[in-house]
Design goal:
By secondary structure, the chain is an alpha/beta fold. The chain has helices at residues 21-29, 43-52, 80-86, 155-169, 201-223, 263-266; strands spanning 31-33, 36-37, 90-96, 114-118, 138-141, 144-148, 175-178, 232-235, 270-273, 282-284, 288-289. The strands form three sheets. A five-stranded mixed sheet has the order 6-5-4-3-7, sandwiched between helices. It has a four-stranded mixed sheet with strand order 8-9-1-10, covered by helices on one side. Strand 5 and strand 6 form a beta hairpin. The model has no long low-confidence stretch (mean pLDDT 97).
């Protein structure tokens, strides 16, 4: 689940200047959904719908929470990981939670057994492009803050490595891996290995590192002989944050992006792969939504 990735920011959805071979391969091995919609064009609301299957306003979560927010996902809401945990699944989230930062809203109290990541967006700290008075951004492992203002260029690598460790540790039981990447939400960072690689500057570098992440997850599933028994979904929480120019993506050919209800805000790239279950090499233009 990418953050602010635009509709045409990957090759199989039209990107000409960003190389995404691992994501593109999913179109050969699975189905490309060209009319996939999120419920709202902003982080918290989109994630609330994904986790609950409800329109975000119905569960009281609109807009985007931040470090001052007193609200979060309600204890009475039943989330996808809770349903799966009841069925014996191992559940892990590695990335951005954004459904409340207070202890009662922790993912560990809402169906997840493991968590590494941040409680809200990565700009909700001293690196915010405009606001300079926000406190340190916490990196949380489980229910403990283990770092303040972590190196954001290492986010994609660290989350991917932890996700693959989770897969290896749970290869003999059902699992639900939720990998809500922190990138390419501003401020954007790529690790040294990916800096300067793409033809679209830093933003392209960041997306190419996300593509590497997808490749690592797929390779891990293959190594563990889990490919045929795993449903893999790749998509984005909303459209591109166009206010940030070259540090934002593209929703071409659609209008506008994040924070608007034009197509560019709520229509995102989506690929699903499940060998022998989901048709390979198919393009589906029927409307599908994250609340489904």
């Amino acid at each position: 689940f990418a953050d602010d990735l635009g509709y045409s920011d990957v090759g199989c959805f039209g990107a000409k200047d960003i190389c995404t071979p691992n994501i593109d391969r999913l179109t050969v091995e699975g189905t490309r959904f060209t009319s996939f919609y999120v419920s709202q064009p902003v982080c918290t609301a989109s994630r609330a719908s994904l986790m609950t299957g409800c329109y975000a306003n119905r569960v009281g979560l609109a807009g985007a929470l931040n470090h001052t927010s007193k609200t979060g996902i309600h204890a009475d809401e039943v989330l996808l990981p809770e349903l799966l945990q009841q069925r014996g699944y191992a559940t892990g989230i590695f990335g951005k939670w954004h459904l409340g930062h207070r202890p009662e809203f922790s993912p560990l109290r809402h169906g997840f057994q493991e968590f590494l990541g941040i409680p809200y967006s990565n700009d909700n700290g001293p690196l915010h492009p405009v606001v300079k008075t926000i406190p340190s951004l916490p990196m949380i492992d489980g229910d403990k803050t283990v770092e303040q203002d972590p190196d954001q260029s290492q986010f994609t690598r660290r989350l991917t490595e932890r996700a693959c460790q989770f897969l290896s540790a749970n290869k003999d039981r059902p699992f639900f891996l939720y990998l809500p990447h922190i990138m390419p939400h501003v401020p954007i960072f790529a690790s040294e290995k990916f800096k300067g690689r793409s033809a679209r500057g830093l933003y392209g570098d960041v997306v190419e590192e996300l593509d590497w992440s997808v490749g690592e997850v797929v390779a891990t599933l293959k190594r563990l002989s889990l490919e045929d028994n795993t449903l893999l979904i790749f998509t984005s929480d909303n459209g591109p944050f166009l206010s940030y120019g070259e540090h934002a993506g593209s929703a071409s050919p659609f209008r506008e992006g994040k924070l608007t209800t034009f197509e560019g805000g709520v229509r995102t790239p989506c690929l699903m792969r499940w060998p022998k279950k989901i048709p390979a090499g198919r393009t589906c233009d029927e409307p599908v939504a994250s609340i489904d």
